[in-house]
């Protein structure tokens, strides 16, 4: 469905009305890897920030979605972006105790 909408002109960077989250954030938070990939392959900004300053990488890291973290990193996600709370994706993964995600981000020199 997402690919269909994008093929017919949908904006991969449109923000939701309620919280202003880009689709990559929502898909990353809920573990929808295929949707994240389609969005990124169709021009979604991998480093877009929501009203709280989080990126899709923050969302995926906080939920421990390793595959999505890897996908976002492969598309150039910036591991150093800080949310309004000053938290980096590594901070979010650490707070949630997602060891494998922490290791992935640390390998990218995410301010360890």
From TrEMBL:
Q: Which domain of life is it from?
A: Eukaryota
Database matches in Pfam families = Ank_2
Q: Does the keyword Cell wall biogenesis/degradation apply?
A: no
The ranges of the ANK repeats are 19-51, 52-84, 85-112
Q: Which SUPFAM superfamilies match?
A: Ankyrin repeat
Protein keywords: ANK repeat
Q: Which InterPro entries match?
A: ANKRD_45/46/60, Ankyrin_rpt, Ankyrin_rpt-contain_sf
Record PANTHER family = ANKYRIN REPEAT DOMAIN-CONTAINING PROTEIN 60 (PTHR22677), USHER SYNDROME TYPE-1G PROTEIN-LIKE PROTEIN (PTHR22677:SF4)
The protein's name? Ankyrin repeat protein
Organism from which the protein derives: Penicillium desertorum
